[in-house]
Amino acid sequence: MLTETEARDHVLSRITPGGSEDISLSTCLGRHAAAHVLASISLPGFDNSQVDGYALRAQDGTKGARLKVNAEQPAGADLHLAVPPGEAVRIFTGAPIPQGADAVIMQEDVSTSDGAVVINEAVVPGENIRRTGRDLCRGQKLLRPGQRITPGIIGVLASQGLSTVYVYCLPRVAVLSTGDELVAPGQPLQPGQLYNSNGPMLIGLLASLGLTDTAIHHCPDSLEATTHIIDNLAQSFDAIIVSGGVSVGDHDHIKPALKALGMPPELWRVKVKPGKPFLFVHRTEPRPLYVFGLPGNPVSAFVTYQLFVRGALLKLMGAAEHALPSVEAELAETMENDGDRPHYFRGLLGGGRFKPLGVQASHALFGLSQSNAMLRLEPFSSIKAGTRVTVYPF
Q1: CATH no. for residue 388?
Q2: Which of 129-133, 357-361, 376-380 has the lowest mean pLDDT?
């Protein structure tokens, strides 16, 4: 049985991002850059005022000095004004600094009368001037391959006059649930049947990564039907996430179906709780395909997705960073793991503290629904309340 690290490393080693495309800035939020972007314009692009006030020579800005105001420079076109000794120019935020001026005094720090200003606060050289390139210089790296595009990055790209950016293509992902007992939400429920919660849950997890070109499918407990639907999905999707049917029961047909299609699992079973049955397949021909097999129990499916699928999909999306996020917190109550596998407990992270919630069983959806983080406990171990621990928000 593989350890979590062995399974995760194996999966990630097989993942290669797909192609790239040039898309508009208005649609690139959350995508991952496929190329370096360097600044072609310095910011600021010219010396300008950071306040509304008066541009002057600092040596003339002694307290009590009276300076004639000889012109006005608004934000916008540079009027190519100059500030002779003993004079000042009325200036506004963002406006170009006139020739000869080396400071700007705020309008609150002067008194005005008869076309002149009286300095109420002494001025120092460089005061209230934004210098050319103070923020960024030409040739500076703005974006690197694999970096996630944020609103701030969109802003700095737009400041360079760019309207498009190269990003990695998003994969198409299908979610396939298995089991004769499952019924789609909204349909009548017969005795012995369950509503399919894994499919919608996994679609929600994909959407949280920005993956919306997705689809939910279901197949009955039949080898022929399972083989047929996986073969069909493999023609048009880049990845398939299967929930259920990955164990060794008489009605678990995922492994035999994959073998029949020439895609035997590369790994199966991981030493983790919940979620021991996990399989992975990577096919390169006739087109790249990744298959992730998750357990049928909903909490097990959720945890194995977080541990092994989330990072793989991020790498497939071109992300440079795909590790599970983690933070430090104080444990709210003593916890124990008396099993022989690492156990991921679900709970609530808030105010710097982590508290386990609900029934910690592989089928228990309600506790999961109220949780926002996981805590990993080593086999046969306990951690006392008040201990600083690492938790994984989701």
Answers
A1: 2.40.340.10
A2: 357-361
